Amino acid sequence: MKDGKRLRMGYTTGSCAAAAAKAAAWMLLTGKRREQISLMTPKGILLELPVLNVSMEAGTVSCAIEKDSGDDPDITKGTLIFATVSKKEQPGIEIDGGQGIGRVTKRGLDQPVGNAAINSVPRRMIRENVEEICHLTDYHGGLTVVISAPEGEKLAQKTFNPRLGIVGGISILGTTGIVEPMSEKALVDTIRVELRQRRESGADYALLTPGNYGSDFIWREMEIDSSRAVQVSNFIGDALDICNELGFRGALLIGHIGKLVKIGGGMLNTHSKYGDCRMEILAANAGAAGLPADKISEILDCVACDDGLRILKEAGCCEKTLLRLTDRIAFHLQHRGGEQLQTGAILFSKEYGILGKSSDADHLLNCILEEL
Question: What is the value of pTM for the model shown?
Fold first, then answer.
């Protein structure tokens, strides 16, 4: 809710690509046109989407789904995401990007160098939905799926893609398939509601995580029910303030290094609109830990923290750097939390697992586990 109005959800470019691919595959393998297609998102929400700009030729079908981000401000809102599906002799489903879809030129992103910037979850959605159509139509041959966005190259100039080393267009993104719009105030209010519920149920210690990466890590790697964690998005400082207001004794933050590294530089709101200083902060801590200047320059040229960690490991400076970084994160959390709130952090990466724990992290984790 915002100003008394219920905000409308939308769907991601990943959902658009998967729905377009599903519709194009169905039309290719049945020979019939389709005006609407259904898509089950990873979040469990079923979408019924209009199919636009259908083109049917021998052995190839192309169609589009219009991106609708609901009431969330998004530069891709209204963009047409196309899928062109063609038959091929070799079995299997091949997925690539066409016009307006960026291509990865630097290491450390979701996709390897050379791949189209279609992230892993959208790729899985495309593959699974096309496989579903193959099964329904009893088709056992191969298919090629090319995702495109005619306006993508122009739109990409308004994103971080050029800086990240993604050239030529936008990225196809989304982990849940759904865009959930929230103003900053509405999101902070939601965090306050969740923390109040925890407090009123008797909890003295809060488990916090920025988002889905942290929740998945808590569940898969730490074997803790991820529903016990409160997702605080970029609002780390606000969440700590709320913990203080509600009388929590402690708060433990578990998050990906790509988010928590910013806290090491004193950023308690980690949204990219306030700055993207991940490499600068990592490089500064690495320099203080003894990393040579040429290697510091390499880190500054990285686009993702995992790539920076690779350089640190190769230089034998990773442990010292992460120790300094974790200490800085702990300092800024405690400074914001104040004397009444004990704070701690655990940072991880998808590639390297747990990277660092603040001195109070294990104690706070044990307190949280005792309350479960």
Answer: 0.73
